[in-house]
Amino acid sequence: MASDYASAVRAGTMAAGRLHRELDTRALIETQGGSVDVFGAIHAVGLPLLLRPLKGLLGAYLSAPAPGVLVTTERPMSIQRFTAAHELGHFSMRHEPSLDDESILRRMPMSPEPGNNFEETEADAFAIAFMMPKWLVLAHSARQGWQIDHFRPQCRLSALAADRRQL
Ligand SMILES: [Zn+2]
Looking at residues 136-161, what average pLDDT do you find? Predict the structure, then answer.
């Protein structure tokens, strides 16, 4: 179990990478394109998922009598996907049950969770790394033809001009 914020982020990120490798997500996205299918991953690991209106919660992870996750339907799909990935993180890392409110969207080194177990930090790091793995960012950048120069403000105009010349 992580004993500080940085190792919690590392542990969550590594667990997300492990699950991607287990599910072979990268090969799937590289052939089909698109983004990470969080709900598909939950289904693939056999984790029961309930989508329901929840009061005061974005989601929950339950471990007894059997593992399962709940995700609210009262938020936009982007937040539902993040919440589902967070709950999948709790499951993947065999955490204690968790009732998750909006604090999962705002956790930072300056405002860590109360207590010392860092399971919420791990689950947040898992969610971020699972939905936005480095290889996915690189694959989309390659597909769009983005180069480092495109992101340098002083070079943007010349890069765009070069693009035009190629058209
Ligand atoms: Zn949580």
Answer: 75
